[in-house]
Amino acid sequence: MPSVLFRPNINRRAFLAGTAGTLVLPGLLTGMARAATERPSLPIPRQLFPDSQGNISLRTVAGEMSFIDGLKTPTYGINGPYLGPAIRVRRGDTVAMNVRNELDEPITMHWHGLKIPGKDDGGPAEPIHPGASWEPRLNIDQPAATCWFHPHYYPTTAEQVIKGLAGLFVIDDDEADALGLPSEWGVDDIPIILQDRRFNKDGSFFHRFNMAAITVGYVGDTMLVNGSVYPQARTAKGWLRLRILNGSNARSYKLALSGGKSFFVVGSDGGLLSEPVELKDLMVNAGERYELLVDARDGNAFDLMTLPVDQMAMNLPPFDKALAVMTFRPEDKDGKGRLPDSLVSLPSLADLPADAKTQKLVFGMNMDKEGMGIFMKAGLPKLMENGEINGEIAAAVTRLLVDGPKLPKDVQLSANTINGKSFALDQVNFDVAMNREQRWIFSEGTDAMEHPVHVHGCQYRIVSVNGKAPPAYMAGWKDTASISKGGTVEMQVRFDYPATRDRPYMAHCHILEHEDSGMMAAFTVS
After folding, report:
1. Can you give the pLDDT at residue 433?
2. Do 274 and 344 form a contact (C-beta atoms < 8 A)?
């Protein structure tokens, strides 16, 4: 029997049944949760290393969890009831994966952030049917990084991730090891998976592909950190390394620490930066990862907070104000990790030749007017009045999210586009050359929504964001970059592995409801 990966100990008297449709009302957790006498410990995912033959086995299974007192939530998990292990590999490893699907529906398993051939990538063209297994071999040849894995089955990725199919994929290497960064798992090296969720009255996860979902994506009203509500982590004193994954379907988080405490960004999606970047807050979009170092040598407790963001429909309570999502209590032994002055050497951006290939991806929404219309009619622009939430408007917007009728499947699948086309499993949208530096440009059509764009099979460098050089914390290796408000992102990328017509790579919006409604393109590398 596999060991349980997460020990949730979630006992939340703060949950109350609401009256908005069949859902628990948003906002009821904010103050009440903090008054609870019992606080769950932060669950730490078990590390899963290759065995002596280089094998790693994963099983996707159905389970249940107790997120709400007195109710059981049906879940999916990987080697356990909810979420999955933290896979740990080293640069130079060849890992033989065995992914067995013990669910009653097909899945895939995508290694988000890994530079591997299309045949091993786990995109929509590689379904694992119930009772079947998939056995890719992953040759790990990229710098130390915090990546992750999740299903990519079309068009049910969003719901499968909501139910719990996701886990961390951590790559180590000698260069990162030599820096002396905090490295004791769960003690001063802390994994943090951020997800917002919404529950039906019976405790099950809510999800519905209605007009609201294909417009703004999934809008939860409850924060989970590693599958737990407002947990606390008892950590070492000293420098703490926080490995942040935004594993939410759609929500962006503006992270900060309580008391205005600063932190240092040391890594992004694809690896460490050249030097630490000190910040007071950090925007993390869906699918992105960042590694932060926090000075906890004084032993004082502090909270990880998320601040209100300028993302449509995402400022409903409890996200209308600063929200504490977890507490750190540096009470354990003194940690050995340190904050280096410099980190790793990053190559300079190459001077692209005049004939360098430029690939433009324009993200569009066929039903933007209809989607925006329902929110405007509900009064969304006036949600905040004098710094306070208008309760009637919040209730009206919530009804759109939870009571809006499910769309017919053909309407869902044609709602969103890249370069004017909705995704189809039998089409390849373009081909790019292998082993050549290229310029890619992400932009929006007529909509101004948030689109965190993920590209498979690569780690790229951002050249500009809205025509300006990227901020220092975004200047390292990336696989996800967000556009919004009509903006553009230009990047330089190189593909080192092939992807064929039967196993292509994907480029898509990582708002999973956008991805599952057509905002995805397949491409080959040859």
Report:
1. 96
2. yes
Query: Residue 522: beta bridge partners?
Result: 506
Tokens of 20: 């908005």
Rg for the chain, CA atoms, rounded: 22
CB atoms within 10 A of CB 127: 18
**Residue showing tokens 């992750």:** 148
Quote the CA–CA distance of 214 and 368 in Å, as a whole number: 9
- What's the rounded Cα separation, in Å, for the pair 508 and 522? 9
Q: How many helices (H) and strands (E) does the chain have?
A: 8, 32
Q: Which two tokens stand for residue 248?
A: 């939410």
Q: Which two tokens stand for residue 235?
A: 């950590």
Q: Which amino acid is residue 34, in one-letter code?
A: R
Model confidence over 132-185: pLDDT tens digits? 999 999 999 999 999 999 999 999 999 999 999 999 999 999 999 999 999 999
Q: Return the residue matching tokens 């996701």.
A: 166
Pairing of strands 94-101, 55-68: parallel
Question: Does the reported pTM lie above 0.85?
Answer: yes
Which residues have C-beta within 8 Å of that of residue 182, sequence separation ≥ 6? Answer: 188, 189, 236, 238, 239, 240, 241, 293, 335, 336, 337
- How do residues 399-443 score in pLDDT, each as one tens digit? 999 999 999 999 999 999 999 999 999 999 999 999 999 999 999
